[in-house]
Design a protein that fits this description.
alpha/beta; Aspartate Aminotransferase, domain 2; 2 domains; 7-stranded mixed β-sheet; 15 helices
C-alpha cells in the first residue's frame, strides 16, 4: 500500500465509520445470521496473490457486516455495554496509526506519563483517596488475575514464584457465589486450583456475601493448616448486580491479614456520581479495585482501570527484568509492563484523555444518571402489568423480570428472549436466579435516549403477548 493509498483508504474507513454510526438505528441490534453462514462465504484457502482494496472492502460490507452484532446500537440492552464514544474512536485511530509498543517508559515516555495522570484523574473521579496508584489493564479479567497472584505471593511470603505451589501448603481464596467467571479462571491460571476457591453463600436483597459464613470459613481453613490468602468482593455482579458489603468484608480481611480485591467492572463507572458511592462504602480499605471504563464510561475496548494500594507487591509478583528491558540512566520511571501479566502494552491512556476532556465528568454523570432513571422507569412500568413480575429490583441500571405465561415458565421466558432478539428491535439476555430463568435488562449504551427505554417496554409487551 502506497502512502497515497493509505491516505485514501484511511479516509474511506473513517467516513464509513461515521456513516455506520449515523445509520446504526436502522439495523437489527443482534446479527440475524445462522451459525456457519458467514464462514460459508469466506474462501477456504488463503490467497496466493494480493487483492485490490476495493474488493476487500466490498467483501467486508457484503460478507462480514451482516454477521456483526451492533454493540453501539442505542437499544443494546444485553450483557453490559461495551461503549465506544466517538471521541474515543478518534483517539484509537491515532493510536493505531502510531502503532507504538508502550511496554516501557523509554519505548514511549508520553504513553507512560499520560497513563499515570489519567489514572489519577479517574481515581479522583470515583472518589478513591490518595494513596492508590493506577494502571490500565486490558480487561477486568487480567486485573483480577494480577490481584489473585499478589494474594498468593503475599500469603506464601513470595515463595510461590520461586519454589512452585507444590512446595507450599494450599492457598485459599474466598468469594461469593455471585462473582464473575473471571475469578474462577484466575484461580485456574494462578495454579491455586478450583478446590481452593471457597464459595460463600450470598443473601439478602443485595445478594451479598454472608459475612459470618466468611469469617467461619477462614477460621476453619486456618485450623486445618491451609493458608487463607485473600477475598474477592463484588460490586454490581454480572447476573443481577449482586453487591457485597465492602466495609464488612474489609473488616474481616483486616482481622485475618488477608488481601481484598474489589471487582466493580461494570458498576465502578457509576461511582463518578457521588450519590451511588454508598454501594461500595468502605472501598478505601481494599487493597485493589478494578472497573472498566470500556463498559459504561465510553472508552473504546480494551481499557480496564486497576487501582492498587501497594504497587510494590504487584511489581514484586510480576516483574522480570532482563537486561534488554532495563531503562538505564533514568531514576524513578514507571515501566507499566511490570504491573501487568502481558509484556506488550497498547497506548490505552490516550482514549481516556480524549474522552474525559471532550465530555467532562459532568457530561458522563448525566449519561449514567439518565440510564439509571430510564431503567427504573421501565421496571416500574413492567411491574404494573398483570402478566409480568420483577424478579430483582434495579441495581443501578440493571434489573430482571419474567413474563407469566405458559405451563413451563422457564421455557416460555427463554422463548420470549429468543423471539425478542430475533425481532431485532432490541437485544436482551437471560440469567438464572434461584434456579429459575429470568430476563435481564440493563440500560447503558452511550447514545441511548429515553425514547429507547420506552420502545423497550412496547417491544417486550408486544412480543410476550404474541407468543403467549
Amino acid at each position: 500500500m502506497t502512502p497515497d493509498d493509505f491516505r485514501k483508504w484511511s479516509v474511506k474507513a473513517a467516513e464509513w465509520g461515521a456513516n455506520y454510526r449515523a445509520s446504526i438505528r436502522d439495523k437489527p441490534v443482534r446479527a440475524q445470521t445462522a451459525p456457519g453462514e458467514i464462514a460459508a462465504r469466506i474462501a477456504g484457502r488463503p490467497p496466493e496473490q494480493g487483492e485490490p482494496m476495493e474488493a476487500i472492502f466490498a467483501d467486508f460490507e457484503s460478507t462480514i457486516l451482516p454477521g456483526m452484532t451492533h454493540w453501539q446500537h442505542p437499544r443494546f440492552f444485553a450483557y453490559f455495554p461495551a461503549n465506544a464514544a466517538p471521541v474515543s474512536v478518534v483517539a484509537e485511530y491515532l493510536v493505531s496509526a502510531m502503532a507504538a509498543q508502550c511496554m516501557l517508559w523509554q519505548t514511549s515516555p508520553a504513553a507512560t506519563e499520560l497513563e499515570t495522570k489519567v489514572l489519577d484523574w479517574l481515581r479522583q473521579a470515583i472518589g478513591l483517596p490518595e494513596g492508590f496508584a493506577g494502571v490500565i489493564q486490558d480487561s477486568a479479567s487480567s486485573a483480577t488475575l494480577a490481584a489473585i497472584l499478589v494474594m498468593r505471593e503475599r500469603a506464601l511470603a513470595f515463595r510461590g514464584n520461586r519454589q512452585g505451589l507444590a512446595a507450599n501448603p494450599p492457598v485459599r481464596v474466598y468469594a461469593s457465589d455471585q462473582v464473575h467467571s473471571s475469578i474462577d479462571r484466575a484461580i485456574w491460571v494462578s495454579g491455586i486450583g478450583e478446590a481452593n476457591l471457597v464459595r460463600i453463600a450470598a443473601k439478602g436483597p443485595m445478594r451479598a456475601m454472608d459475612i459470618d459464613a466468611l469469617e467461619a470459613a477462614i477460621r476453619t481453613d486456618r485450623q486445618a493448616g491451609l493458608v487463607p490468602a485473600g477475598i474477592v468482593a463484588c460490586v454490581g455482579g454480572t447476573s443481577v448486580g449482586a453487591t457485597d458489603d465492602i466495609a464488612a468484608v474489609c473488616a474481616v480481611a483486616k482481622r485475618h491479614g488477608l488481601y481484598v480485591h474489589v471487582d466493580a467492572a461494570w458498576a465502578g463507572s457509576a461511582m463518578i456520581c457521588p450519590e451511588f458511592r454508598d454501594l461500595w462504602a468502605g472501598v478505601e480499605q481494599a487493597d485493589s479495585i478494578v472497573f472498566n471504563p470500556h463498559k459504561w464510561l465510553g472508552a473504546q475496548f480494551d481499557c480496564s482501570a486497576h487501582f492498587i494500594r501497594d504497587p510494590d507487591s504487584l511489581v514484586k509478583t510480576l516483574a522480570i527484568q532482563p537486561e534488554y528491558l532495563k531503562t538505564h540512566g533514568r531514576d524513578g520511571v514507571i515501566n507499566y509492563s511490570e504491573w501487568s501479566v502481558p509484556l506488550g502494552r497498547r497506548f490505552r491512556a490516550l482514549k481516556i484523555w480524549f474522552l474525559l476532556r471532550a465530555h467532562g465528568l459532568e457530561g458522563l454523570r448525566t449519561m449514567i444518571r439518565n440510564h439509571v432513571a430510564w431503567s427504573r422507569a421501565l421496571a416500574e412500568r413492567l411491574s404494573k402489568e398483570p402478566d409480568f413480575e420483577i424478579v430483582t429490583a434495579p441495581m443501578l441500571s440493571l434489573f430482571t423480570f419474567r413474563h407469566l405465561g405458559g405451563d413451563d415458565a422457564d421455557r416460555h421466558n427463554l422463548d420470549l428472549v429468543n423471539a425478542i432478539n430475533d425481532d431485532g428491535r432490541i437485544y436482551l439476555t437471560q440469567t438464572r436466579i434461584d434456579g429459575r430463568i429470568a430476563i435481564r435488562f440493563q440500560a447503558g449504551q452511550f447514545d441511548m435516549t429515553q425514547a429507547d427505554g420506552e420502545a423497550a417496554f412496547e417491544v417486550i409487551g408486544e412480543i410476550a403477548r404474541r407468543i403467549a
